[in-house]
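Worked example

This section walks through a single chain of length 334. The input is the sequence exactly as stored; nothing has been trimmed or padded.
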Amino acid sequence: MGAGANGKIKWTLPGMGGNTSPAIGANGWLYFGTGTGAVHAVDASSGSVEWTAQVSQVGFVSSPAIASDGTVYIGSGDDSLYAIDGRTGATKWTFLTGGEVLCSPAIGSDGTVYFGDTADSTFYAVDGATGAKKWAVQLKDGINNCSPAIGPDGTVYVGDSIGYLYAIDGATGTFKWTYSNHFTIDSSPAVGSKGTVYFGSIDSNVYAIDTTTGLKKWSFNTGNQISSSPAIGKDGTVYIGSGNGNVYALDGSTGAQVWSYSTGSVGFALCSPVLGSDGTVYICTPVLTLYALKRTTGSKQWSVNFSSSSEQSPAIGSDGTIYLQDGDSMFAVN
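Given that input, the structure is written out below as tokens.
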């Protein structure tokens, strides 16, 4: 089954639960923000705390993004995006926006940081080294939990809270196209290898949009709202969770259902799947049960229950260890 296939708790770090999904740096450290405005750095192998920095006076909801140089970017409810030195926890710069930054930033190949806010409907491109604004564009509405995705040609894709998906030239901020389904997009888009961008919507549908034209290729109705973001397998299969408690595997080319698995936990739409190197699909529910599902059939390989709840998505390390948290503790499962 490969690494991460046993469902055994490797370590637990009590009192260090975050308010965001964790992100793993190249140095093997986990980074995550809390509801009190602190950011933690934890050694992923041992669970030891490397540093804690009180960055903001307002809590974090945005999950961090980590640059190749180790800089940690994270948005806050105090209308700011922070750049933090991943080694020390020192704040490198702060960029003030016109509203809360609830979405996680995306980092371009040249180090540009892309993100938006909730209130003034603005989407930004910021120099990752200096925090200087490169460009800003007005969307039709604000961005809630939809984090941007970057295509191989540098196009940035992001959705807003009234149902518009935008394709934006990452270098200039020029709109290439928009697509609307008129329902909130909290699901962060994922870009496939065959010119398709995928996302879910509050209208219960998963959408596949042509990255060149902005036209819909297909949609699939799950029967309940989707805030889970899609994950794309090496063979192009799209995996996504729905608020009806099901995980779906869809053919990326046609939208046909390959399989579905019911967790029996209605309302875990905010948890997004992650894929192991062997294709195992990992997803968790709000009552914090972590499932490992077989890539080809959706059959359960194992599950592990925690006496807590969370709406955050897990992260997976290079050795297959799964990291997830609730409001109090961080867990490592392998």
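What to look for: The mean pLDDT is 92.
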